[in-house]
């Protein structure tokens, strides 16, 4: 048993077909007064909807809350943006981020980070960087997740220059550089066939005492291969065998 009221369980399970506003309103009606008094209950349900990658259902819930005069706050909107991110729906994420302004709700770091992650999954690196700039203009501080998603977005777009600039910005902000962010930057260098900055990134990992993983090594080796630098590629392959024991088929 999950302890949820039956109508809420029905709400989470509805969607074998396309949910309707009327259908969702009927299911939520018994709970809206409770949500008005305790908004965290709505946040919990919206988060569960997000885990199920149902941004269209989350939007209907928000609409029912507004029509039922339940105050919608930043946590509710952020949960819905996160639902869009998990579904890879960047247009939906942007829509909800803009709706926050119309509802006089100020986005926070989580709101922007979730939207940027949605743009990254959608391969929209320019939009991701635009939101990062907008976030900073709003005097919000990006965190490791925000930078990581932005760097990954640049990697998808082969934008190695912006990826390296973001990695530098992460360090200037005294945030922790990890294997995920550096690997994303390495991927950007690989796609752009830039072996020299790729080597610099491996050196950065060594200085920071960050253990390179298969993704890091494979990206660096692939970069050297694309640039015709076979000796360096073979050297790294041997190093990877010593560090990881089992290089993958890509390497």
From TrEMBL:
<protein>
    <recommendedName>
        <fullName>Pentatricopeptide repeat-containing protein</fullName>
    </recommendedName>
</protein>
<keyword id="KW-0677">Repeat</keyword>
<dbReference type="Pfam" id="PF13812">
    <property type="entry name" value="PPR_3"/>
</dbReference>
<feature type="repeat" description="PPR">
    <location>
        <begin position="73"/>
        <end position="107"/>
    </location>
</feature>
<dbReference type="InterPro" id="IPR002885">
    <property type="entry name" value="PPR_rpt"/>
</dbReference>
<feature type="repeat" description="PPR">
    <location>
        <begin position="108"/>
        <end position="142"/>
    </location>
</feature>
<dbReference type="InterPro" id="IPR011990">
    <property type="entry name" value="TPR-like_helical_dom_sf"/>
</dbReference>
């Amino acid at each position: 048993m999950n302890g949820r009221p039956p109508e809420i369980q029905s709400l989470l399970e509805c969607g074998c077909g396309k949910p309707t506003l009327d259908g969702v309103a009927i299911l939520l009606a018994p709970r809206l007064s409770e949500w008005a008094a305790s908004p965290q209950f709505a946040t919990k349900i919206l988060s569960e909807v997000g885990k199920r990658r149902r941004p269209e259902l989350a939007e209907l819930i928000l609409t029912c809350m507004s029509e039922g005069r339940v105050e919608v706050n930043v946590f509710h909107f952020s949960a819905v943006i996160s639902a869009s991110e998990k579904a890879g729906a960047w247009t939906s994420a942007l829509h909800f981020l803009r709706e926050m302004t119309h509802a006089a709700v100020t986005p926070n770091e989580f709101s922007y980070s979730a939207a940027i992650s949605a743009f990254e999954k959608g391969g929209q690196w320019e939009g991701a960087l635009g939101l990062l700039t907008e976030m900073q203009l709003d005097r919000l501080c990006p965190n490791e997740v925000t930078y990581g998603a932005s760097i990954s977005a640049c990697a998808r777009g082969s934008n190695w220059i912006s990826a390296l600039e973001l990695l530098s910005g992460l360090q200037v902000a005294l945030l922790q550089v990890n294997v995920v962010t550096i690997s994303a930057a390495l991927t950007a260098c690989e796609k752009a066939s830039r072996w020299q900055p790729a080597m610099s990134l491996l050196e950065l990992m060594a200085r920071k005492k960050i253990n390179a993983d298969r993704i890091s090594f494979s990206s660096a080796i692939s970069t050297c291969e694309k640039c015709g630098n076979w000796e360096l590629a073979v050297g790294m392959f041997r190093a990877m065998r010593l560090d990881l024991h089992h290089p993958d088929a890509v390497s």
